[in-house]
């Protein structure tokens, strides 16, 4: 069993990740920015730690074995906040993981994350790309998961994965399936040191991770 710090635990995807961890053999620890969110995780029986990735988070990393990064600045914030959270904040968690001996790191990224993106949301995709590249160059045992447009559709437990991180055709990924992928990647060795896209598909999640990434 690993103690897994979920960064961005109070978000839609982060909450689903926390719930999925509760159903797994691992123990979730919810990192929250607002003390008002503690009641939510108390009710779930989940330990929460108050920390903000715009500032030092060492106290939140103590005695953790793995980290799932599911935080995001959100679509309603400005470009400056995107840089502070999705780029600098993400790198702060990577450095923190290294300092505290947290070797396993699963990053929620995005398709089309490129440092030279010219997309209408290029500020976000560039921020994600810089953080992803920093993670790849670290000594951590990482996995970078790149979904398409996120939906709140009910999960099917079936996905498609690909090494193509910039597909021509747009595709969607349910948050439910995504959360399961992020958690299962903790243990699926085929996902170690890998970056891949994930969307809705026809293959059971664990089977897809084991057979389609290698």
How would you sum up this structure, described in words?
The protein has 214 residues and is of the alpha/beta class. The chain has one domain (3-212): Rossmann fold. 36% of the residues lie in helices and 24% in strands. Strands 3-2-1-4-5-6-10-8-11 form a nine-stranded mixed sheet, with helices on both faces. Strands 7-9 form a two-stranded parallel ribbon. Helix 1 packs across helix 6 and helix 4 packs parallel to helix 5 (122-136). The longest helix has 21 residues, at 79-99. The chain is globular. The model has no long low-confidence stretch (mean pLDDT 93).
Main features:
single chain, 214 residues, alpha/beta, Rossmann fold, nine-stranded mixed β-sheet, two-stranded parallel ribbon, 7 helices, 24% strand, globular
Question: How are the elements arranged and paired?
Answer:
Elements: E1 3-7, H1 12-22, E2 27-32, H2 38-44, E3 47-50, H3 58-61, E4 66-69, H4 79-99, E5 104-108, H5 122-136, E6 141-147, E7 149-151, E8 158-162, E9 172-174, H6 175-184, E10 194-200, E11 203-204, H7 205-212
Parallel strand pairs: 1-2, 1-4, 2-3, 4-5, 5-6, 6-10, 7-9
Antiparallel strand pairs: 8-10, 8-11
Q: Structural class per helix/strand content?
A: alpha/beta
CATH topology: Rossmann fold
Q: What is the H/E order?
A: EHEHEHEHEHEEEEHEEH
Count of β-strands: 11
- CATH homologous superfamily placement: NAD(P)-binding Rossmann-like Domain
